[in-house]
Specification:
73% of the residues lie in helices and 0% in strands. It is mostly helical. The radius of gyration is 20 Å and the shape is elongated.
Length: 109
């Protein structure tokens, strides 16, 4: 016996969009791929810069792992906050704000 309400078991084909917007699945897929590639590029930049960071700061391989960990910890926590903000303020708005912030920070760097 399911504890879910009856409308939760309804097939997706029966549901109608409540937002009034036309669905664009190819645009959504392309946007998702491009947005996730920004995260890949961002992580690659850290790995490319590790040799210069190690040379400038005189760090060994074990020390450089802390640089990567120091980068990944805030990134992981911001992913959780971004997901919660997307649920609260809208995923599209948060995605556009994140891309704008990324572009601005890249320009400043």
């Amino acid at each position: 016996m399911s504890a879910l309400p009856a409308h939760c078991d309804r097939p997706l084909a029966d549901s109608t969009p409540t937002s009034g917007h036309t669905d664009h699945p190819h645009l959504v897929l392309a946007t998702s791929i491009l947005a996730s590639s920004l995260a890949f590029i961002d992580g690659s930049v850290v790995n490319v810069g590790l040799s210069a960071i190690g040379r400038d700061l005189g760090g060994a391989g074990a020390d450089l792992s802390w640089v990567v960990s120091g980068y990944l910890l805030p990134l992981s926590s911001l992913l959780l906050l971004g997901g919660a903000a997307g649920d609260r303020y809208g995923r599209r708005r948060i995605l556009l704000a994140g891309i704008a912030t990324f572009a601005l920070a890249s320009l400043l760097c």
